[in-house]
Amino acid sequence: MIRFNCDYSEGAHPKILERLVQTNMEQTPGYGEDEHCRRAAQLIQKECGRQDVDVHFMVGGTQTNLTVISAALRPHQGVISADTGHVNVHESGAIEATGHKVLAQTGCPQGKLTAQMVRQVVESHYDDETQVHMVQPKMVYLSHPTELGTLYTKRELEALGQVCREKGLYLFLDGARLGYGLTAPGTDVTMADIARICDAFYIGGTKVGALFGEALVLANPALKEDFLYLIKQKGAMLAKGRLLGIQFEAMFEDGLYYEMGKAANQAAAVIRQACLQKGFSFLCDSPTNQQFPILPDEALPKLAEKYAFANFGKTDETHTAVRFCASWATPIEHAQALAQDLLAL
Amino acid sequence: MIRFNCDYSEGAHPKILERLVQTNMEQTPGYGEDEHCRRAAQLIQKECGRQDVDVHFMVGGTQTNLTVISAALRPHQGVISADTGHVNVHESGAIEATGHKVLAQTGCPQGKLTAQMVRQVVESHYDDETQVHMVQPKMVYLSHPTELGTLYTKRELEALGQVCREKGLYLFLDGARLGYGLTAPGTDVTMADIARICDAFYIGGTKVGALFGEALVLANPALKEDFLYLIKQKGAMLAKGRLLGIQFEAMFEDGLYYEMGKAANQAAAVIRQACLQKGFSFLCDSPTNQQFPILPDEALPKLAEKYAFANFGKTDETHTAVRFCASWATPIEHAQALAQDLLAL
Amino acid sequence: MIRFNCDYSEGAHPKILERLVQTNMEQTPGYGEDEHCRRAAQLIQKECGRQDVDVHFMVGGTQTNLTVISAALRPHQGVISADTGHVNVHESGAIEATGHKVLAQTGCPQGKLTAQMVRQVVESHYDDETQVHMVQPKMVYLSHPTELGTLYTKRELEALGQVCREKGLYLFLDGARLGYGLTAPGTDVTMADIARICDAFYIGGTKVGALFGEALVLANPALKEDFLYLIKQKGAMLAKGRLLGIQFEAMFEDGLYYEMGKAANQAAAVIRQACLQKGFSFLCDSPTNQQFPILPDEALPKLAEKYAFANFGKTDETHTAVRFCASWATPIEHAQALAQDLLAL
Amino acid sequence: MIRFNCDYSEGAHPKILERLVQTNMEQTPGYGEDEHCRRAAQLIQKECGRQDVDVHFMVGGTQTNLTVISAALRPHQGVISADTGHVNVHESGAIEATGHKVLAQTGCPQGKLTAQMVRQVVESHYDDETQVHMVQPKMVYLSHPTELGTLYTKRELEALGQVCREKGLYLFLDGARLGYGLTAPGTDVTMADIARICDAFYIGGTKVGALFGEALVLANPALKEDFLYLIKQKGAMLAKGRLLGIQFEAMFEDGLYYEMGKAANQAAAVIRQACLQKGFSFLCDSPTNQQFPILPDEALPKLAEKYAFANFGKTDETHTAVRFCASWATPIEHAQALAQDLLAL
């Protein structure tokens, strides 16, 4: 069984693991106050092209989302998200559990929020005397890549940043798969762009080759104050914080993070190419490590004998959308084997 | 200026106020432990046709909704509502502030949830291995009349009750305007039906002639346990609880509640008739005290000189939906005056 | 049975009720946007000696406390209170339910927090590198009169205000029984003092002669922003907000609030005098409407035949502390009757 | 600088790390659904002497505490803890942030709650008509070892279990340092005892030799229902759950966990012996890896030149309590060096 069902089936990139082994018996302070975290933060600031961002390391994505959102919002404020957004559907109500409504938007093209949508949501919440009876929109949450593997263009991000500044919203970008996004063919978005446009974002490690870990970047000073308290309160402060620093050091000191992203995208492209060649259509147009082809139903059991993949639901009476997910760890031969089997359908 | 903008522009029905005056200097225990509350509860049990329901008196609707929902749900559970539901849009995130997601459903016909929609929501949250990553639907919230003035039929309520029992959900009915619903022409739903079908519901006083107050009926034993703690915790326990008991006594000892409901519906029918006669269409088909005609835009400023009413948004380039709201306090002459002015447009 | 068990056994002062009757059929906007609320707010600003405070009307004390505290604090912040404080023991965890720790202080002399205690709490939470592992103290909550009927002096309040400003804390005063405090013999504290020293406080109506209602005064601009959203979200926004405005108008337009306070204190003084004469000691030294004498156990059943009062626990093997509570509605003859029965023990 | 300031200064025991390296490229399902987690759970069930407990793996202690407590309690319920308990002071309000009060008890002998204290707390919350105005005690939280390194005896635990059953409370044991407790000289408590007596407890990995991770054991069926939802919602579900399973497999398949505990206790005993020999007194009587001697103030700067340790506050004008913390990683030579320096003071 070859697993294309997600991008976290293996442990970590061997170079990262090796670094954990090398540093194992060092004695360091806890809670992220060590030299590895400090250096990893500096490496990330360099990628961001700015020294004035705070970098915090956390363990997982849901944890990071709920900590950032609950730290940023007052009780009556909510966060705008695509209805397909991770915070809306796949966090078991984590955001609501901290007290905040997710203002879910339907009809997002390619799973992406647009500046125009944000503007409309905000205006519909502020336009009359009963505005205090509604949740106040205060943050925009987006993921890059999205849950559907699609990417924002620099222009789209700029427009979102613009409307957020204009309306007094925070822009928060979930980069759980950022490595795959930054290295996708055709993207014009860099980490420095994101650090310039967004108030907060995170660089995903868990799904991009680390054992675990996300590096949160806080750019807006209003979000920085007392943030460590929130990390601790949400159970997100790792006692041996160095484990996160060491991993991000390894990923960012010589470009390993981007190498891993690129490799996954290349494996995914092999699968994508085979689907295009067979004339399969796609749920959406993803240049990243996740591919969502729509397959004839009879193909599924055959493929399922050799491969694990996710079912994304029937699209018509005889077809089903699936997700094939490559990762930093996918051997190109595995992608090629799947491609051949798809072509042979 | 004649106010048709809501059903809480005046104080209370004079008979209710009179009763408060008569009882003013009685000394009673606090917190709803007095004889008036006891007797009011008995009167309501009689209307419900069952002695085994608990009755609690609270001050307002949002308060009642948030207390019931947070008492009933565990942290990972959510409540299904029409997207137009009060808990979804007009409570400033009150439900989320207690930690729970509102699973808002779009496309509800006439603002009403259907049994089929509930079934689909539940099934889409339980059908695969990742169900624990999603909020667990555990309650259905509906209002009767709905926010759009429409009514469920007995058959529709029975079907909702059936699917809730089948799927293990609580059925909770918000009756902020129940008096107008129970007395609407053509309805086949009685309070006893509601008490039989629902796990919990409340009988609105604030919008139906009381100074303030809602009578919550808990039928499902699972919802009764320790409920007083929740009332207290949410700041919903009135020190002089008797004020609520006295009002509901007055409303239910000789049918005043229904009289008030009927009077408002009749006033609304006068307005409705005029709109039909002019060929105006309606946002939805309401037999209750709220009417939502769609008017030509040029009519609005003229009407606004004499009447207060709510704007429900443009329906096309030259028309706007509005709400005229009659109440227990609306003199029939006011409705007739508006009807004439509508006909004269 | 004569009730001395609390100060909310009756309805409202007849003048207040009369005003509700007079205004009953006025049509007004809802949610506190009416002229009565506006005028009541102005009367209160005048009592405060400042025009720049916001005044909001709410229904009850627990509701007001939880709304103010959750509006003011970020998630990692807590509120310092005497361990006997209402928010610590008698609100069923209302404050914690909004996410905040009550930092309860033991050993408060006469039930009062001191500036020195506040300073120590703050310093013990900030003094080392692990401060982010602890709740951050951000508000001081006190009641005046306290739960034990005692009063702060102006000097004590000034000192608390000073330490709060110095340490960046908000000072919030719960005035559920403020009317009794402001009119107590010997007090040097006025409402203007409170409005000058505190960031927020409320003027209790429920326990001082209104049917219900508390007038919240927000002096610190940081607490004012978006406060109406919080009122709505906590279910604390009365649809017919005018009911609150009308009552506070009646209480503050010609000194009725103070008259009622004074009358209760005088009744309490009669009871107190009898206890002193009998040589009973007291739990604490209260000049207000609540008296806490320590009685020989055998006296209790006798008194309980004619009077309702609260038991505050055994103080030694043969004695028990009780509370006799006079109110605006207590006829002086009732206090005299109790005094005589006490003297006759 | 030799670090005795905590027990998480290093990475993981080499055997554990080695196992992570060996299994690194295995493809497994995520979220703890893998074979390693299954096997680790079985090993732990064996230690517990019961197959009917659920085992869940989580990342850290605060996370585990807040997830268990919020899963178990209804909104009006609270958890009884020693005032020195981790949930009360060192989790930045994590428990309150989930809505629950920590009912902190002062005066716990040796940092331990007693059955008698629990009984009194419960009785003081249930004894009169106003019980619904107070938080309802529903859980007892204790740590073993306590924050002060002390241990409950089997008899003390039995008594706590007894009072909890009698009063309908859950008994939850925080075993962040359980390995040190189970192997302490003189203890009569085994893991099977704990699994028999408690409703829930966790086996700490982070502080006892794992990279990170805690194994939560749920014995009471009432606590098991839907627990995975809560894990996910609190951001506590590790995508690569196997990392936890693999570590606990390594720790429990041949007694490594106990070996590590014993080694730390032995190192601590060396330090303890030196203190006793010098006649130093102790904050409390700890047989585990943490020692709290009271040193003359002038000794501190000298020791601080070579050793890191925690300051626990002045005990009188010339003395200060400190904490020396040994761990699974402490070479006995380091303890001996410190012992010598203590003796040489």
Give an overview of the whole structure:
Four copies of one chain form a homotetramer. Chain A contains 15 helices and 13 strands. The first copy, chain A, has helices at residues 14-22, 35-48, 61-72, 86-89, 94-97, 115-126, 154-167, 178-182, 191-197, 221-224, 227-233, 242-252, 256-278, 299-306, 332-343, and strands at residues 2-3, 54-58, 77-82, 102-105, 136-143, 170-175, 200-204, 214-218, 290-291, 294-296, 307-308, 310-316, 319-325. In chain A, the strands form three sheets. A seven-stranded mixed sheet of chain A has the order 2-8-7-6-5-3-4, sandwiched between helices. In chain A, helix 1 crosses helix 12 (242-252), helix 6 runs parallel beside helix 7 (154-167) and helix 13 runs parallel beside helix 15 (332-343). The first copy, chain A, is globular, with a radius of gyration of 20 Å. Chain A starts with a strand and ends with a helix. The mean pLDDT of chain A is 97. Chains in contact: A-B, A-C, A-D, B-C, B-D, C-D. The interface between A and D is large, with 54 and 54 residues.
Any key phrases for this structure?
homotetramer, 345 residues, alpha/beta, 15 helices, 18% strand, globular
Fold topology:
Four copies of one chain form a homotetramer.
Chain A (H helix, E strand, L loop, with lengths): L1 E2 L10 H9 L12 H14 L5 E5 L2 H12 L4 E6 L3 H4 L4 H4 L4 E4 L9 H12 L9 E8 L10 H14 L2 E6 L2 H5 L8 H7 L2 E5 L9 E5 L2 H4 L2 H7 L8 H11 L3 H23 L11 E2 L2 E3 L2 H8 E2 L1 E7 L2 E7 L6 H12 L2
Parallel strand pairs in A: 1-11, 3-4, 3-5, 5-6, 6-7
Antiparallel strand pairs in A: 2-8, 7-8, 9-13, 10-13, 12-13
Helix pairs in contact in A: 1-12, 2-12, 6-7, 13-15
